[in-house]
Amino acid sequence: MVKDFENSGYWAIILGGSSGLGLASAKKLAAHGMNICIVHRDSRTEMETIAVQFEEIKAFGVQVATYNFDLLALDKIKVMLLDVKEKMGPAAKVRCLLHSIAKGNLKPMAAAEESILSTDDFRITIQNMAFSLYEWVRIIFDEKLFALDARIISFTSEGSKKALENYAAVSAAKAALEAISRSIALEFAPFGIRSNCIQAGVTDTKSLQMIPGSASIIEHSLKRNPFGRLTLPEDVANVAYLLCKDEAAWINGTIIPVDGGEQIH
Asked: In CATH, what number is assigned to the domain containing residue 159?
């Protein structure tokens, strides 16, 4: 395997990298020589399994730093970045900020007996899944940690434009995420920063399993996909890797479907 990023001093900061698309992307980038910083929020009971995954990343021979805290805690973010700076050294830079935060409310807007979606649910979901992208970009930029040719990658879904039951808050968050990503692509371009969204197809992750009716979503997607299978986290990670390569420098401000053609049917 060609290690494109070996000896480059490049780091990827991955928000939500302990499972799903974020973890798969961390492994893919590490396999190609990118140093990895994972910020995640998980319980102690989950850490035994997660630690095994982190050891797999270290086995690629790259530097790995992991931090388990609330990804929106500004005081902890600043302390973390000071620690990362020390680990990186003066010559190293952040080539990729990958946003894979999946923390939102999945409630119906109208229901006879269930708890229904509130405006606070919208606010919390959009804060976690959309506004946080800009907050992290701004902080890393202010700390002068971005490489001269940096890549911002965030994960969106078809739900940003399509109504799904119980998905209203996340749908709004994904639409906001795409808008923020486009604006980053425009306003940070003079500083060498590219920003793109990957629209993943239906992927059997912990996040999907939390959606009410996920089994029927999976069944429908299998029928709809031209290749007759779900998207894998590794499919998405492959494109995250491609976007980090030098050859992808002219891709900016777009939404890239990674779904095997699922959205065309």
From this structure: 3.40.50.720
Query: Residue 255: inside a domain, yes or no?
Result: yes
Instruction: State the Cα–Cα distance between residues 233 and 142, nearest whole angstrom.
Output: 31
Question: Do 173 and 182 touch, CB atoms closer than 8 A?
Answer: no
Q: Does residue 128 lie within any of the structural domains? A: yes
pLDDT confidence bin for 74, thresholds 50/70/90: confident
In-domain check, residue 5: no
**Which residues are CB-neighbours of 219 under 8 A, at least 6 positions away?**
none
Whether 3 is covered by a domain: the verdict is no
* Tokens (6 digits) for 148: 């001269």
Encode pLDDT of 166-189 as tens digits.
889 999 999 999 999 999 999 999
- Give the dihedral sign, CA 81/11/258/51: negative
Residue 168's nearest CA partner among 105, 238, 232 is: 105
Number of domains into which the chain is organized: 1
Residue type, 179: A
* CA dihedral angle for residue 20, residue 21, residue 23, residue 25, rounded to 10 degrees: 160
Determine the structural domain holding residue 60 and report its residue range: 10-260
